[in-house]
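Subject: for your reference before the review

Hello V.,

The reviewers asked for a structural picture of the protein, and I figured it would be easier to keep everything in one thread rather than splitting it across files. Below is the amino acid sequence we used in the manuscript, unchanged from the supplementary table.
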Amino acid sequence: MIRRFLDLLVLTLAGFLATNDSLHAGATNAAPDFQQVYELLRANLAGMSDTELNSAAVEGLLKQLHGRATLVGSPAETTTSQSGPELIKSAVLESNVLYLRVREVGNGLVDQLAAAYRQLAATNKIAGVALDLRFAGGNDCTAAVATADLFVTKKMPLLEWGNGAEDSQPAKKPIPGPLMVLVNGETRGAAEALAAALREADAGLIIGNPTAGLAMTTRDFLLKNGERLRIATNPVRLGDGVVISRVSPDVAVTVSLGDERAYLKNPYATLAQNDQAIAIGTNDFRTFVDHMSEADLVRQKLKDGEDIGASVPVRSKSPPKPVIQDPVLARALDLIKGLAIVRGSRL
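And here is what came back from the structure prediction:
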């Protein structure tokens, strides 16, 4: 049974490899035959059972496909693991910039984005929007088009993924810009397609690092052990037919994925250089506050021989204004501020 499962897996992925010229050189004719290598290992490798060898073969093969094929668990496990809102954070930053962080582009995202905008715009004057698609994914291209409609102001062919181009249907009152779309090397799937579509429609600027290059529709294949193998079967194209590959940012901001994960937890964190991280909580600025009392200040002045005849000013106990340290988000806010000034809406 293990042998049959492996044979089916090899045949399925071999066909997929043959249709993807973009894979690295390891998938060329010069590479060793996978079946031959597996049989030699199975017959001669000491201390490894068929089950262990099969597991290693599957893991290694999928790793080399760089996200184009993945095990996604059983249907019940997948539903549980992916539960939760597609929009995981909405806030107003620096008085009037709407920040929207997306976990996944799915069928609930449009309503969640629209509701967040209505709620926050009701009590804040919004100068622009930062749409954070870093580490975001999704497989719903229809939801990507619908999400783009919240920001696009003109009707045009937007995305195509096998059934003809899907046109944008701009909202009667689109969410006003300027729009900055934040991406990184883990922006993939429908989120990647959304970023490309927004730029193609001149609805926003892309900021950050190049995306994953995985804007593809997928198909799930049920395996005998109850898990599913998700294979990227069809590339997503822009409305003009151009395949969406890695989306390069309009404004590149170099930052590691590890640092970005830390900044997403707390954009106000200060990450020191020499492998030492100083994380400052969003509401904890005690590190920056001078706690010297007035009496301490008098004693210090006497010790230094200074004249204390004049009244000693009382030091402010208010913490300083927090500063966003996330370089990608900070650049997006700077651009929104600059465009607001140009448009005559000073912050």
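For the response letter, the relevant points are probably these. Residues 1-27, 273-292 have pLDDT under 50 and may be disordered. Residues 150 and 173 are 8 Å apart (CA to CA).

Happy to draft the paragraph if you're swamped.

O.
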